[in-house]
Design brief:
Length: about 700
């Protein structure tokens, strides 16, 4: 039996007001742990209870994981099956719209989604096509530039507030990039937002349909929405003369994505764009002990650029924050592992009660290793993902090509992996023909095959002068190219159904003889080959888990690829994290909470990050140090009962060992809340004093 939803008993006054104000715009700016996410969850449940159809509700979250959690909470609260409710990230929402409507923009529905590394390859290819050497070109910056152009933050020949200049020499490369995406029937991440906007702006009838459909919109973590996300949201929510039913919640103190173009000025913009907004303040924190909250407030109050808020905890003082000053990162990792083992035993905590937060990805390895050594199961998110491994990418490239053979970037990855005798020369002559015809490689291959089957191969070659000169395809690889075409066609026939995807992927891995490929590639290191193959087995297992999930209604290859493409860094590998310690970047920890939190590497140069120290305040109001302080605030406020902070005295950096200094943010935590942790000894107030005295010296 599901208990009836009792919102009065489970919400405080202001929360209740926010949950029941379902008509008209609502804005909630409130501190960490004050129940913002809870408000959105209960609002949805309340709406469903009132008989508002699931299909009219759209809730936008920051990560896929947060979306899944919210959905399962709503399910718990209402006892309803959720089949038509949309809870997703902005990007996943974009995909949902595009899978329905993209043909209007001249794409096909089986479009590929390019991640950063696909994008990187494509940019390189475009540089080559524009006869610009990629030596000395900062590809990351170039990708950023393209992104800024695409989302309208920069225009060619102009500069933005922080001095970035959009040099017109890159314009032809950008145009080539755009054209190629179109030919490959592929979209990059920005397109997932800009294409729906274009669709809505150019086709009022489509916009009208979606406005009509989503009558109730909610956005969590609103402080980190980008301008382009804001535009999309505004387009949907604004319904002409009618009042918009939109509720956004956020915390300016937790805005940590400015570097990615998020703008908490959206908070200010919102009030202007949605007149008559009901503003609600939430001031009680339900997450953390008074000690943790006081520490967090002590830190964040040093930021000048913020909305002052009151935030209090109804809980008692709780345990002191423990500070540990290990000799180096190995000692730090060992300390964390030991504490976890000890607390699990003494306080009967579970592994998933612990969160270990780091500022930078390169802190992951040492800690992961220590956990492995101590048999502590852990789940990593925010770092290098499982899906970035070479062997996994190979298999996923196959799946992408099966779904969308026009996807040149992925086709090029697999056309000769495993090696099948299609050499560089063949590939480049096919590419030339394809470029000339402004078609994808696959299409060109198909035309060649057709001509050949009709005995008109020479005719096909005549159309492509360059290829004629070279002879396409080279005589010796004709058979191999033909074989590749039939391989992909066979896989397409087999794999595009709605069932048994994991079994089909398994069969595919065998068909292409990937194991043979690994053995040849790693003939000197068989262990590595085995390890890589084990990863593929794990991938197949993951697909099977996904298939068997009762909430998963669409089990097609397309649905799987969508899901994988949209997994953000913060989502980890999308597998359940029950029974595991979470090891994650602070960025990935947004919105989460753990009974026990470790902040590792609280050192000057890590947090605040050295890059932000070098950069100094920008020309616009953005101050990188303040952003780092917000990050530190986010980290502290993830803790419910107990917070550990560690700061190493030395740290290895490439070959050298360098001396480290504690983060200046530590001084901003009121000293009486901290205990200096000395191994094997009771926490000692004198040691804390000494520690701070030493720190002061270092900073003077
Ligand atoms: P963040 O800013 O970190 O995203 P938040 O404002 O979204 O935090 P929630 O995650 O919604 O806060 O809530 C923090 C914790 O407090 C959760 O465990 C939530 O269930 C609990 N909580 C919030 N409001 C109440 C309440 N009225 N009664 C009991 N528990 C509450
Ligand atoms: Mg939240």
């Amino acid at each position: 039996m599901i208990a009836k939803l009792n919102i009065e008993a489970e919400l405080n006054g202001p929360q209740l007001r926010a949950v029941t104000a379902i008509e008209g715009p609502v804005l909630i700016i409130a501190g960490a742990g004050s129940g913002k996410t809870r408000v959105i969850t209960y609002r949805i449940a309340h709406m469903l209870e009132k008989g508002i159809p699931q299909s009219s509700i759209l809730a936008l979250t920051f990560t896929n994981k947060a979306a899944r959690e919210m959905e399962s909470r709503v399910k718990e609260l209402t006892g309803k099956k959720l089949q038509a409710l949309t809870v997703s990230t902005f990007h996943a929402f974009g995909v949902k719209v595009l899978r329905e409507e993209i043909e209007t923009l001249g794409y096909r529905k089986n479009f590929s989604i390019y991640d950063e590394s696909d994008q990187n390859k494509l940019v390189k290819e475009c540089l080559r096509d524009c006869k610009i050497s990629s030596d000395g070109v900062d590809l990351y910056n170039l990708q950023q530039l393209f992104s800024n152009i695409k989302i309208g933050r920069l225009e060619w020949g102009t500069a933005d507030g922080s001095g970035r200049f959009a040099d017109t020499v890159w314009r032809p490369v950008y145009d080539e990039y755009q054209n190629s995406l179109k030919i490959y029937n592929a979209l990059d991440f920005d397109d997932l937002l800009t294409a729906p906007i274009q669709l809505f702006e150019e086709h009022p009838e489509i916009l009208g349909k979606y406005r009509q459909k989503y009558r109730y919109i909610m956005v969590d973590e609103f402080q980190d929405t980008s301008l382009i996300q804001y535009r999309l949201m505004k387009l949907l929510a604004n319904k002409g003369n009618e009042k918009a039913n939109i509720c956004v919640v956020g915390d300016d103190d937790q805005s940590i994505y400015s570097w990615r173009g998020a703008s908490y000025e959206n908070l200010i913009r919102f009030e202007k764009d949605f007149p008559g907004t009901l503003e609600i303040k939430l001031e009680q924190n339900y997450r953390s002990t008074t000690t943790i909250l006081e520490a967090a407030n002590g830190v964040i109050s040093n930021n000048t650029n913020r909305k002052e808020k009151k935030l209090w905890s109804g809980m008692d003082g709780g345990k002191p924050i423990e500070l540990f000053y290990p000799i180096n990162e190995s000692a730090e990792a060992e300390f964390i592992a030991e504490q976890i083992k000890k607390m699990r035993f003494e306080d009967r905590l579970k592994f998933d009660d612990f969160g270990v937060l780091i500022r930078t990805n390169n802190q992951i390895d040492v800690i992961e290793e220590a956990f492995l050594g101590e048999n502590i199961p852990c789940k990593i998110s925010g770092g290098k993902s499982f899906f970035d491994r070479e062997e996994i990418k190979d298999i996923l490239s196959y799946l992408r090509v099966v779904a969308n053979p026009d996807d040149d970037v992925n086709l090029l990855r697999i056309i000769n992996t495993p090696r099948r005798g299609i050499g560089k020369a063949s590939i480049s002559s096919i590419s030339e023909i394809a470029k000339r015809n402004r078609s994808s490689l696959w299409e060109s291959l198909g035309r060649w095959q057709l001509a050949k089957d009709h005995g008109q191969e020479s005719l096909f070659q005549e159309h492509s002068t360059e290829a004629k000169g070279r002879g396409f395809p080279p005589e010796h690889s004709k058979g191999e190219i033909g074989g590749f075409i039939s391989l992909i066609e066979g896989l397409r026939e087999n794999m595009l159904g709605k069932r048994d995807l994991s079994a089909k992927v398994k069969a595919m891995v065998e068909t292409i003889n990937y194991w043979g490929h690994l053995i040849t590639e790693y003939n000197k290191d068989e262990k590595k080959a085995h390890w890589k193959y084990a990863n593929i087995t794990y991938l197949i297992q993951m697909i099977e888990n996904w298939e068997n999930d009762p909430d998963n209604l669409d089990k097609s290859l397309y649905a799987y690829l969508n899901r994988i493409s949209l997994l953000g860094r913060a989502d980890g590998d999308g597998e359940a994290d029950k029974g595991k310690v979470s090891l994650m970047t602070i960025h990935a920890s947004k919105g989460l909470e753990f009974p026990v939190v470790f902040i590792a590497g609280a050192e000057d140069g890590i947090i605040p990050h050295e890059r932000s120290i070098e950069d100094g305040p920008g020309q616009d109001s953005f101050d990188p140090i303040e952003e780092e302080r917000r990050l530190f605030y986010v980290a502290i406020t993830r803790a419910r009962d107990k917070l550990y902070i560690t700061s190493c005295q030395q740290r290895k950096r490439r070959q050298d060992v360098i001396t480290r200094v504690p983060s200046p943010f530590l001084q901003e935590i009121p000293a009486h809340l901290i205990w200096y942790h000395e191994k094997e000894k009771e926490p000692d107030a004198q040691a804390t004093e000494n520690f701070f005295a030493r720190m002061k010296e270092q900073f003077n």
